Amino acid sequence: MDRFNHLFFMLLSVAFAYECPNETVFYIDLDSTSSTFGKEVSAGQCGCLSFSQDISGSDSSVIISLNLFENEPSRGFQFTIAQESMGALDYQWSKTTGKSKDWDVWDFKNPDGSVALLGADLEGKQTNSGNNDIFLDVMYKIVKKPPTKISFYLRSDKALILSDVDGENLLCSYPSIDMPAIFEVNWLSSQIKKSKFPDRFILYPNYPNPFNPSTTISFDLPYDSDVRVFIYDIIGRNIAVLIENKMIAGKHSIQWNGLTKLGESVPSGIYYVVINAGKFSQTNKMTFLR
């Protein structure tokens, strides 16, 4: 924690305004078997993405959020987030929230530091249209001192999809390389007293996810606590005990290698990690692939 000075972030520019035009999306039908092949056809009403003005910064990590405004419900997304930080930020995890809370997210890190994200609800749920709201949090680890400004945008040379219930792309506007969200980083170590411990309990999304053969589960403890970390299968059976003892305050992590408490390998599927620390309890979903 003490490798870096305390960080403060100030938003310099937002890629797009919060209004999203209530307009029809058109595209060229490239399905050669369709009667409208080669013609411009309508899809649905516009959906728009933008980065939130709220950014969480510390001396070890940064969490940025993406906002979603759509004029009709969405069921999935696919895009690649790029960042310009001179190599200071290393992607860790993404988690849906707000409109898309509990959707599954698959991530793929690229050599250039960008990350491709694919999200959907496996049960077919969709968002409620209208209202600009945060729908995705993305965390980066700070691996070296950042420059005075860092920026984030979505790559236009990769898939950019905001899917409706019919699988049609409704995305009208997004933060591009020409109009990125830019944040100024202020280093105020001489004015800010740094805390040695986290200020709240939190269970972070495991990384990688999906995973094979192992995944890392991280959590924060603001004070010494009796901690239990269990793994459950999709029908609610406790199949593994990762931690069951008293732990000191701080940041912690543990790996799960896909084995049960009997040492047997689990099959591919969805599993749940549950942490209990005093009155705090949180559950996250994981996907194991063989």
Brief overview:
By secondary structure, this protein is mostly beta strands.
Structure overview:
- With 290 residues, this protein is mainly β.
- The protein has 2 domains: 7-187, Immunoglobulin-like; 202-288, Immunoglobulin-like, CATH 2.60.40.4070.
- Helices cover 0% and strands 50% of the residues.
- The protein has no helices and 22 strands.
- Strands 1, 7, 9, 10, 12, 13 and 15 form a 7-stranded antiparallel beta sheet that branches.
- Strand 5 and strand 6 form a beta hairpin.
- The protein is globular, with a radius of gyration of 21 Å.
- The two termini are 35 Å apart.
Report the top-level CATH class of the largest domain.
Mainly Beta
Class from secondary-structure proportions: mainly beta
Characterize the largest beta sheet: strand count, sense, and whether it forms a barrel: 7 strands, antiparallel
Number of strands: 22
In N-to-C order, the SSE pattern is EEEEEEEEEEEEEEEEEEEEEE
Query: What is the gyration radius calculated from CA atoms?
Result: 21 Å
User: Distance between termini?
Assistant: 35 Å
Q: Assign an overall shape.
A: globular
What is the count of distinct domains? 2
Average pLDDT across residues? Answer: 82
Topology:
Blueprint: E1 7-13, E2 24-28, E3 40-45, E4 47-51, E5 56-57, E6 61-70, E7 76-84, E8 89-96, E9 104-109, E10 115-120, E11 133-142, E12 149-154, E13 161-163, E14 171-173, E15 181-187, E16 202-203, E17 215-221, E18 225-233, E19 238-247, E20 250-256, E21 269-277, E22 280-288
Parallel strand pairs: 4-14
Antiparallel strand pairs: 1-15, 2-3, 4-6, 5-6, 6-11, 7-10, 7-12, 7-13, 8-11, 9-10, 12-15, 16-17, 17-20, 18-19, 18-21, 21-22
